[in-house]
Fold each of these.
Amino acid sequence: MGFDYLSNCKLLRIGLIGLLSFSLFWGTTVAAEVYWAARDLEISPVGNHHLILVVPDNPDELPEEIQKMLVDLGGGKKGFTLAAFESPDGRLQFERSNQTDLQSVREHFDPEKYVTLLPDYDLEKNEVEPPNGMTDTEFIELQVQLAQNYETNEAQNNVEFDIGDQNCATWANTVFEVAGVGEHEREEAAEFFGWDRGEEYLLDESLFTHQPP
């Protein structure tokens, strides 16, 4: 990709976690569930689209910047999704709370209200625990920061979508890896019914860890 801002992404990951710990959000801790999730593709019920689903237990106690991202997830729950998609020009682009992702989540949490046609999107989700020493709030903040870094860096250094090893599943795997989730935990969380591609691969970590000036 011609994109190598960092000589050691692992060290910057530690720095990012430390920075978040002393950010303006310091002292705020909210219980939350973070999931690696998958839903049916719009074009096929066999293939899977992967996403990260964040569902805070007490959304009103989150930092204001995170509260602004919250949307209705159905069933009285609030939260948001983080995911990557193939753009019309063939790039792998980040999108928060994509409408089809949200529809799949709402079908899952409130099927009586939101499942109007069959088959639906058949969302599955596997909870991902924060790495040792990290609170739920720090885990959420870090993932949001990594996704935003990717969005900015990808706009400057386009990432080509590839169905085999540069796709939505690869993107989610890299976010969790850079956030400190272990390989074994990621492998277990990435297991879903249906056809998955790319969940074992990683994108260039500097796309997520480099913070543009």
Amino acid sequence: MIPYPHPHNEHHHNENIKEWWAYETNSYLQDRLRNLILKVKYSKSTTKGWKLSSNDLEIHQVRMERYLNELDKIDKHLKLINIHHSPKRTEIIKQSIINIQQLTHNNYEHKTISRTVQVKKR
């Protein structure tokens, strides 16, 4: 025979499950946010100092738009959970992505930076 929980214990149990779910979801979303920041930094480093074709620039612009959409989705979910949610932090990350996107675009409108790759001869 399975003992049924007392109503007071059931409420406490449900609250514990809600807290556990919120914590696990928050951990997952924070990991996604960290990975997103790493992707943005990598994209910035790959475009910095190299002359990109117009196709590469378009790919970079689309990629940054995708990152902005992903950031919006993560922010929406973090608002629902409301644990360690900082709208100011999200706004700073969003502005950084926009700045990287505009900086890359502006660099190619006004000047091009080229770097020669030297191959060592054996």
Amino acid sequence: MPTKPSQPTPADISPDKAVHLIRKLMQRFKGVTFEMLEQVLLPLDAPITKLDRTLKKFGMHYGATFEIAQGTEHPTITRGRSGKIVPKAFLEGTGDWKELLKARIHDAKPGQANGELHYTGQKKELETRIVGVNVGDVFEIDRYGITAKLESALTEAALVEHALKRGYKVTRLPEDIAQHLGEYHDCDFIFEKNGVKKKVESKSLWGTDTSKCRLIHSVGGRYETSSCKFAAQDFFAVNLWLRTGCITDIAFARSVLRDAKHPHGLPAASKKQPKKPKDAPKRPKGTPAPPKELLPDYVTQNPDCSVDNVVWFGSIDDVWNLP
């Protein structure tokens, strides 16, 4: 297995480059201050001061409880505010970013707030994860909602760099296109090498369960479901940052229905079953459920996603010539 390249660190960036970046941002957004940029680009970090791992029922799911020593002195700390729990070691600069659990504030006052720790709604998974959370780990709050957009943009930039380093020509297709200039593109990128062009769609892990990815598309028009069509792209490129904490970790897969000719493919989506009327007879106990109707033109929405060198691969080179 090839050695994984070392990742850049803040120490690799010269002070001149950092100052240049800040000055360009302040020039682009006239009137912005350094403090505004810091509050937008960086989350508010609130270390856990009290933790009770006892699971309780909150609505339809289970959760543990926690407390922080920060509160309504911050405009964004209020009832209902959600965020992620990340390791204390990350804040101290001795470990990588990693989502341990999700968090949600219930009550807040000056200098104090408390709430619940939860994950995916699955009690068993929560029981496993809560063991790894400790006092001192950090409640990370995205104050102005930039993280999702910034992550999306950085994952695409990382994908472009990945391809360019391996000798591909890359075209980033527009998100939308004027009608007189051509048809709307269903994929994000065109990669080209040795005269061969292929379509690549950039996707992310599923925030609710980072063992899976989200292969979704807007419903409507030519799409009868919110799953991606196999034919819309040749490859999926899923960024693994939500799981690994490294923006350059990417998993690639062929966008093709898995069958005897395509063992590296992905499973098909299934048709959503209509809701049964309340007075419909129940299926007799022990009777198997009828098989789901598959949609062979569409990929399943939330497949498992990890680099196994069977379906998911760690480089575009590894999937480029797969059938």
Amino acid sequence: MPPQIVYETTSSSNAIPVHTGGSSPVELINTIRMLVIGKGRNLSNKLQLQAELIADVKLEDNNYIVVDYRTDEYGIGETLELALQDLLESLVGYYLSLKKRKSHLAEHEKNNLILLNELLNSK
């Protein structure tokens, strides 16, 4: 299992709260451009986050790119919310694909399935 990475976001004086429709707002931190998506956010009609998701945010060519480097999944959109939604849909699609191919996964895919099993929860 990959090592758990903990990010401290509460002490940042540059944090900007951004409400994205989940159960709790996320924080966009200017200095390190990290996005914290709160536990409990619904990802689909069957899955929700059971732990915080921390993603990197970039702005390139007027598009936001939100990246989860633990799984190498990303989302792109004209707004932060669209990019975040694209990332979450990518994570769900990747998770379902891994589960479907469970007996034929490469080692890094097995590790990603373990990570996603810990991150996502069936409702």
